Amino acid sequence: MSPDTARQTALRAAVAQLQAADIPSPLWEARHLLCDLEGITPTDIIAYPDLPVHHITQYQDWVALRASGVPMSRITGRRNFWGLEFHVTPATLDPRMDSEVLVKEALALIPTDQTCDIADIGTGTGCLILALLHDRPLATGTGLDISIEALKTAQSNADALGLSGRVRLVESDWLSALQPQSIDILVSNPPYIVQGEIQHLDPAVRDHDPILALDGGTDGLDAYRAIIETAPKVLRPGGWIALEIGWDQGQTVPNLLNKAGFLRISCHQDTAGRDRVVLGQKPDTTALKKTLGKDRAKG
Ligand SMILES: C[S@@+](CC[C@H](N)C(=O)[O-])C[C@H]1O[C@@H](n2cnc3c(N)ncnc32)[C@H](O)[C@@H]1O
Question: Which letter, b or e, does each residue of 255-283 get, where b requires 16 or more Cβ atoms within 10 Å of its Cβ?
Fold first, then answer.
């Protein structure tokens, strides 16, 4: 065995390379790449530092990619979201931790002991709908996307997580494939970057996330307008919409919901305190009619 292939030696060289490239947390990243590639744990590196790295050339390639700014998940093809592992491909957005706020807020709307039909518009890897179905075993879901390649990735994630029996993955332009009044909770993290700002994004986002997942049109609101316009048709009375938003859309998106007739509109923040999720409820006119009927009967 060449001494260069020993775990400890390879790791040290990788840390030095990442450090020189100003990658934050170089030790953590070098270790994560090594463990992912070799199928070992950080403890294995400490306990058996002299064992060889079996895929040393690939490890060196991965470290070079990371040093050049390629995001970790684009190298390993995997991302942890909501404690679950998702495959990430060039056709999908790399799921963001911030989107876990949307999962948390949507879960609060879904009873644990009742069935519920959930739709996820622009599903990408399927991270939102699959996280929701994972935590709500009685719920069923539909993940919709205009990208066939993204849907293939979502399907492989559903299979790997054992959730394919409760989710349908459907090609659709926004909500067009959904039946009227068929959904209890509609969630979406739509593309919301203002078109003119895309070129100024961090290269890790601009050069690796698909443009279809980023481009929100000239004011960043194109997708919200399309989704909110049709949402009342596909939601059941009393159903909810839960939308991820950009940090500066905490006024504009609630206004769109208000104009579309949604009630109980609220805005929720991420861990950094920025506006991140907006909720709204479709009025339950059937309940209103019943109440009115009772009032009339009394009167
Ligand atoms: C910001 S990504 C969100 C992906 C995933 N839900 C997540 O949170 O990681 C937006 C998704 O919307 C999809 N999309 C873009 N235009 C669409 C359209 N007209 N109809 C349906 N989906 C669309 C993209 O392909 C992309 O997967």
Answer: ebbeebebeebeebebeeeebbbbbbbbe
